[in-house]
Amino acid sequence: MKNNLVAEILPVALNAAVEASEAIMEIYVQDFTASWKEDGSPVTIADLRSNDILVSYLESTGIPVISEEGEKEAFSARKNYELVWCVDPLDGTKEFLKKNDEFAICIALIRNQKPILGIITSPVQRRVVVGGIDVPPAIFRFEEVEFPLKWQYLLPRDHVNVPLVIAGSRSHQSGTELKFTNRLKDEFGEVQFLRKGSALKFMDLALGKADVYPRFAPTMEWDIAAGQAIIEALGGTVVHAETQEQLRYNKENLYNPYFVVYTAPMLS
User: Fold this and answer.
1) Closest CA to 91 of 15, 172, 179
2) Which residues are bridge partners to 130 per DSSP?
3) Is the pLDDT reported for residue 171 higher than 90?
4) Who contacts 116 (Cβ-Cβ below 8 Å, separation ≥6)?
5) Contact by Cβ (8 Å): 75, 81
6) Which has more confidence, 134 or 145?
7) Which residues, in sequence order, are CB contacts of 59 under 8 Å at separation 6+?
8) What is the pLDDT of residues 81-97, one digit of tens each?
9) For the chain, which domains are there?
10) Strand order of the sheet with strand 191-196?
11) Per-residue confidence (pLDDT) for residue 21, from 0 to 100
């Protein structure tokens, strides 16, 4: 792979994310309904419209796409991919249906099972956070997408919040998460919680608004691959909750293991 490939295709992915976000917002302000997939999760016309836009852009790079809303290649074919896009066209559909503004678009580029580029947008806030290998982590508004000199570049964490801030899901919590939280209390004393839906939690983690994100409930690769690329670019880690190994992607089973996000080395 050329060293500058990520830099070459980054504008394509960023423009895809912004255009898909705009399309989502056109639907968000209207009346809409959801249908239900076989796994019981909801899907709306916004999910599908965003997917069409993202796939159209990303396939132009010549790299295959794994999307939540698209047909998945058999693992016998996927396992041979050196590079693959991993996409969630509308992360937080339940929050989208509640109209609480807590939904996102996630785009990750995977190389040999490791995320090397992550893009997360907040369509409501009109903001993008990006980061990865040879892509300095940054956050910016949609209208600044083609003007990197205007981006706010982010720095690795050399401290944690006092009290420690734990990010958590708005819709998914578990008893195991409570046990993990109690261990953090034993180590750090008082803690605070930041509850939010979707991958917007990774935006908060990247901005230093939260320190740790434990997840002991089911997620899919496209839910967190972009977030992992961004957090790792900032010196943090996303690890298997039991083995402490970094998560891998484009696996035969696209479910993630339970995981913990640590934004600073002193936490892990």
Assistant:
1) 172
2) 119, 138
3) no
4) 6, 109, 110, 132, 133, 229
5) no
6) 145
7) 65
8) 999 999 999 999 999 99
9) 5-153 (3.30.540.10), 164-267 (3.40.190.80)
10) 191-196, 164-169, 212-215, 259-262, 237-240
11) 98
